[in-house]
Amino acid sequence: MSKDIENVELKFLDLKDYQELKTAMKEIYKNIPNAYWAEGQIKSLIKLFPEGQVVIKVNGQLAGCSLSIIVDYDEFEDNHTFQEITGQETFSTHTEDGDILYGIDIFIKPEYRGLRLGRRLYDYRKEHCEKLNLKGIAFGGRIPNYHEYADSLTQKQYIEKVKRKEIHDPVLSFQINNDFHPAKILKGYLEGDKASNEFAVLMEWDNIYYQKPTKKAFTKKKVIRLGLIQWQMRSYKNLDELLHQAEFFIDSVSGYRSDFALFPEFFNAPLMAENNHLSEPEAIRELAKHTAAIVQKFSEFSISYNINIITGSMPEMKGDRLFNVGHICKRDGSVERYEKLHVTPDEAKIWGMQGGKGLQTFDTDCGKIGVLICYDV
Predict the structure, then answer these.
(1) Annotated active-site positions, please?
(2) According to the model, what pLDDT value does residue 221 have?
(3) Tally of domains in the chain
């Protein structure tokens, strides 16, 4: 699927998206009676708390959605139901003076799963929770595979086995992998959820940056996390092996919620070994033939792992001219290109490499950035 993706956007939910949203919910929750939200309810959510209602769009099509409200958690018992926490689905429980961001729905359409789009929605919730200086996030998580084990396992035993990865639950496993922790079992949480035997798990995430509000306004500086990849220049059998190693590092820094993964200059140079029988100018030009495929794969990784990837630099032919170029593969699916401006004497003498023209800056979801290579600094 990722090869067909040209654009990924995280946007606020618009009422114009309702028909797409309704169709998706009816398919995803087909085993739960009347599980989709009415248009009036979506309109109410957007009016009450527009920043809490977001969608993921892929190539302009709705791929997933996240809905949430803010509640004063002290007003509810730990054993609350979905109806209670949502004010019988009127959202009368939402208050700007609350202390918890409460998730009332989140999903990714089946055809878009495996691209880590759900992680983007959860990351947005976390970032928004921090921005609003709320204590944390909570929600009742379904356990749709529990009915298969209900005769032999208690809810506690089931949860423990999921945590130990002895059992896979498509909802609970995903939530645990996104740093939410089980706090309590909720009985009779969602009426009609037979797959979960109407049980849910109260999942929580604590905002470690929370500060008790004072009369003085609370402000917090935006922090960008940059993952610098230390790349060992070792032999690789082929391009696939090099990409497998690159994916390992991308997965690792993405797991730390990095905004960028930065690769070094000429990280793909070990692939020149397959052309040792050629002269140095010929070998570097053969290496340049891999550049387009690497950029395509890195663009797919940037979407799948929800991280902007700066590809360091690689040789690239432009007509009959050889350049040292890099690419910014953004997590929205777009790709930007930059050139090394000042090549080294050996790059020019041995390979016949030429310098680029013009310094550039690029807009990203973290602000405007620039990339310089080696002698350009």
Answers:
(1) 265, 340, 374
(2) 37
(3) 2
